[in-house]
Amino acid sequence: MAGRMITINSYMSKPMSCRYVLVNALLGVCMAASAVDNQAGTDTIPMPTKECFLGALANDADVNRLVLTVKTNYGFIGKLGKEKSEKARAALLRIAYGEIGDHYVINAASWFRMSLEDKCLARPLLVADNPEVCDCGLGATKGCHVDGQLFALLKRCLSLDSALTRYNAAWVLAASTDDGLSKAKAEIIVESMKTTLATKDCKRKITFGA
Amino acid sequence: MAYQNIWPMGEYSLSEQAKVLGKLPGIASESLRLATPNEDGPVRNYMTLARAYAGDNGVKNDVRRLIKESQSERLRLCAVKAFAALANKDDIPFLQTIAETDPSHREAVAGHYQESDARVVDGETVVFPVRMAAAEVVKSLRQPSPAGELRR
Q1: I want to staple B51 with a disulfide (CB 3.0 to 4.6 A). Which of A164, B40, B56, B57 is the partner?
Q2: CB nearest B20 (choices: A189, A205, A210)
Q3: What pLDDT score was predicted for residue A54?
Q4: pLDDT value at position B25?
Q5: Is B28 exposed, middle or buried (0-12, 13-18, 19+ CB in 10 A)?
């Protein structure tokens, strides 16, 4: 808990509104409570602290700041992503829709995607200008039946200027059910392959398993 | 994962797209052949691997050549994996040679590799990704099929 107090104090030393101070203080408590909860070996978030977090988001707090604050505790966001309440979904949708394109935001949203019951909810992500948001949406879409609308969205993703997004889109196609669209799927993958080495992130080094 | 690989994103993406392409259900080898560009280059190479994944024996020698001659470690690694879709026990000597001689090596990540896979090169403990992949294919080829026969 002492560590969390230091965190909160460090935030207070920076110029920010009282609201941010309050939100970050609440988050500090949330994380501390969550950590204690994890140490106890249980898989629940104490309701009061979880409500604090949700309340902060619902009050239209700065989403960017909120998510950056919890960036070291993806597990907390993950648990939040499994919440069924509309408030939790609304808050996480705001993150997932990429109102800000921060790396950590996308990571947090990636937890959310696992909780989607109706995978069609993720489709709006696939038309985002930010490829990272598209990647998030593609993760959520994996396993979907590919209908005409989704096919068109995946075709778009496979033409974006991002090798990573194309990789993700291809795997959505691979994970979909055998729907008789193999020939059409093959055509859009082949088209993508022809230009993948010209994408702007193609030289970016990325760490993967074999 | 026995080691970490840091790949160029473009080639990684290309290789994975090829894998997906070759494994699409019911994809016709002929359509992949027609889609393969004539000019040499990475796209043609990875299209060849897609055809291998799809079970097109017509590219077997091409895949062998890629495994032996490509300068790209990523391509060789994927070629070995794609070759598994076409290989039979007659290919064991070839794969065994690859499993013993492929030059690419990576720093082994402590606690994530088997001692038998690691070597010390210039004082550094390393593993050989392509060799390991080839050894895996050899191992699978040597495993008896459910009918008790070696794979042919």
Answers
A1: B56
A2: A189
A3: 57
A4: 87
A5: middle
DSSP B49-106: HHHHHTT-GGGHHHHHHHHHH-S-HHHHHHHHHHHTTT--GGGHHHHHHHHHH----E
Computed from CA positions of residues A151, A152, A155, A161, in that sequence, does the dihedral angle turn out positive or negative? Answer: negative
Q: Is A138 within 8 Å of A172 (Cβ atoms)?
A: yes
CA distance B8 to A205: 5
Q: Which residues of chain A does B19 touch, with a Cβ-Cβ cutoff of 8 Å?
A: 174
Q: A175 in contact with B at a CB cutoff of 8 Å?
A: no
Q: What is the ipTM, given to two decimal places?
A: 0.87
Nearest CA in chain A to B14: A193
pTM score above 0.80: no
Q: How far apart are CA B19 and CA B81, in angstroms?
A: 10
Q: What is the pLDDT of residues A58-91, one digit of tens each?
A: 555 555 555 554 444 445 555 555 555 555 555 5
For residue range B28-38, list pLDDT tens digits in order.
888 899 999 98
Contacts of B6 in chain A (CB under 8 A): 205-207
Helix boundaries (H) for A115-196: 131-141, 148-157, 163-175, 182-195
CA distance A207 to chain B (A): 4
User: How far does A206 lie from chain B, in Å, by closest CA?
Assistant: 5
Per-residue pLDDT, averaged over A189-201, amounts to 95
